[in-house]
Amino acid sequence: MSHVAGGWLVPGMPHPLMCPERNAGWNKIRQAFDQARKEIEQSDADLLVIYSTFWPSIIGHQIQALAEPKWTHVDEEWHELGSIDYEFKIDAHFAESIRAACQKRGLHARTVAYQGFPIDTGSIVALKLLNPDNKIPAVILSSNVYSDRAETIVFGKACHDAVKEEGRKAVGIAVSALSNRLFTEIVADDQDHIHSLKDDEWNQKYLEFLNLGRLEDVSQLSRQFHREARVHKVSNFKPFWWLSAFMGQHNRYQGKTLAYEPIYGTGAAVVGLWPAESAARDLEYDENDPEQYEGDRNVLSSSQQNSDFGGPDVADGYPNGKDGI
Amino acid sequence: MSSGSIVTGVLAPHPPHLIYAENPEQNEPQAECGWEGLRWGYERLRRNLSKKDFDVLVVYSPHWATMVGTHFLGVPHFKSVSVDPIFPNLFRFHYELDVDVELSQAIHDEAASQGMVTKMMTNPDFRVDYGTIISCHLSHPAWDKPIVAISSNRAARMFNNDYMQVNAIKLGQATRKAIEKSGKRAILLASNSLSHRHFVTEPPLPEDMSKEHISHHGQYLWDMRMLELMRAGRSKEMLDILPDFTEQTVAETDSGALSWLMSAMDYPDYAAEVHAYGTVIGTGNAVVEWDAQSQGVTP
Fold first, then answer.
1. CB distance B91 to B45 below 8 Å
2. Would you place residue B252 in the very low, low, confident or very high pLDDT band (cuts 50, 70, 90)?
3. Residues of chain B contacting residue A295, judged by C-beta atoms under 8 Å apart
């Protein structure tokens, strides 16, 4: 029995939540969110696991664990769209299960449970639109700015471990744009479009794969997509590494793009993936499939040099060639 | 009226660790020690500032990151709690502050008149970013002066660090002009670290100073080069190499804060006073003051 009932890609920009009526495309995204909500409810999932690229972390991986966070949120960029009141239902117990599963796989992770913690706009948009009545408890995961493929894949596997161990039926939700090139000038609502033809073409190619259920193929193409269609704010394009690892790293899915539209130049898509009987074809992979996170290799200096210059040693588990820089 | 001036400009980094270690009553977590070198540097800065007569603190913060232009706080009063999204275990700070909306609007208008994309932030529910709060608190903990808070425009991510610098310089010029026209005496705070490669783990006791050091010697060398130029009054040369420094050390100068400060102060050719240099979770941080008043540059 699969413990992952399905997976979703949703955008994190606030426009579909705050002002869908101002642009036909934003409204289509909003309607797609509404459809996604219905499909998630019908799946009998008992848990939403949200990986948000809008929540950067530095100290390992952070997991929201406050049972009932409540706040009035204002986006730092789109503050003129208004204030967002929220009150969510977080599965604090499961957050701790993920942390423990991360630890077993060598990842540095911690839960955060503080009233007033700034939950990111992307997670707020996703939860407000996909789970408006808090029918399904959720956990929210950060996206570490320094982590790359191996670490993110192990993170996805650790989250899957926790779902399996707890016997839950989860839906994975990656909150991310496809192409993320925003307009840097003020653009009228009705003039919104994908920032460039190239971004649009790469988005379309990605969606073509997703519509065929080729999730692992999409995961494998993340580096390429990052080079071609992403502004390099972080080390790499990670949401599909996480989502595919969380969902089992294969192509046995039915995929459906419910909407693909521009939001202030970025590629916003609502895409659902559901388990299927047979797989679409696979690409050939030449990258490792890590099970355990063993840290970055320190190519700047050897462990011997670290020791010679008085750097911290490996035994204390603090910055060194493995889990430091 | 055109008697306004920049009294002093400060490189005022914002690691939440410094507030945590300082134990002000506004912060929930409590520490037993930590990062004394930097904290004592801020003490020296505060002693200098206490001798100065000023009306407003103008702060430019990397942690109010905007992509569509530069934004300015446009609400006169804020009260809330700021929780650091990266280090919530260290920084949960209850703040209450006043904004000089008049000067904020004036800088906004001046920048807009130069063709920059600008926006006033007028939503009263907005939470002021922790970079702004930390730099202001460490520089002037009395909170008895209004502030002007300026966002960090990150459009440069779509281009390069030179693009960042050009825009920050333009904003600095607009800031200077607006302050001069306002008749106010301002202290400017560039709220950024220097080299900015973090450790990705934290010791069980965050203030365990046996674990604190620069993340890499190359970062340190770059930081020292920048400080050397600051201490020699060679700010233009520093700005010339700043895009390279930013790239090589993933420096927080990518925010534009330091470039903005130098431009607003019209590229000081006098020695800056380095009150302190120290590392915080591997990043390089310096508290540096350009005292324009004592140099006779401004009245």
1. no
2. very high
3. none
- Give residue A103's pLDDT band: very low, low, confident or very high (50, 70, 90): very high
- C-alpha B84/C-alpha B97 separation (Å) is 18
User: Which amino acid is it at A149?
Assistant: R
Which of B195, B190, B192 lies closest to B279 in space, CA to CA?
B195
- Check if the beta carbon of residue B256 is closer than 8 Å to that of residue B157: no
Q: Are A88 and B78 in contact (CB under 8 A)?
A: no
Domain that holds residue A38: 4-288
B85 touches chain A (CB under 8 A): yes
Three-state SS at A38: helix
Whether A323 has its CB under 8 Å from any CB of chain B: the answer is yes
Cβ within 8 Å, pair B200-A72: no
With beta carbons under 8 A apart, name residues in chain A contacting B121.
79
**Same domain? A253 vs A319:** no
Shared domain for A94 and A131, answered yes or no, is yes
The string of pLDDT tens digits covering residues B54-78 is 999 999 999 999 999 999 999 999 9
**Alpha-carbon span A139 to A7, nearest angstrom:** 14
- The CA distance from B112 to B144, in Å, is 29
A303 and A167 share one domain:
no
How many Å apart are CA B251 and CA A147, to the nearest integer?
Answer: 18
Report H helices in chain B: 16-22, 36-50, 101-113, 130-139, 161-182, 217-231, 235-248, 257-264
Give Dmax over CA atoms of chain A in angstroms: 64
Nearest CB partner across the interface for A233, out of B85, B157, B282: B157
The pLDDT of residue A180 = 92
CATH assignment of the domain containing A73: 3.40.830.10
Fold for domain B5-290? Protocatechuate 4,5-dioxygenase; Chain B (3.40.830)
Q: Same structural domain for residues A282 and A142?
A: yes
Least confident of A85-94, A128-137, B161-170, B232-241: B161-170
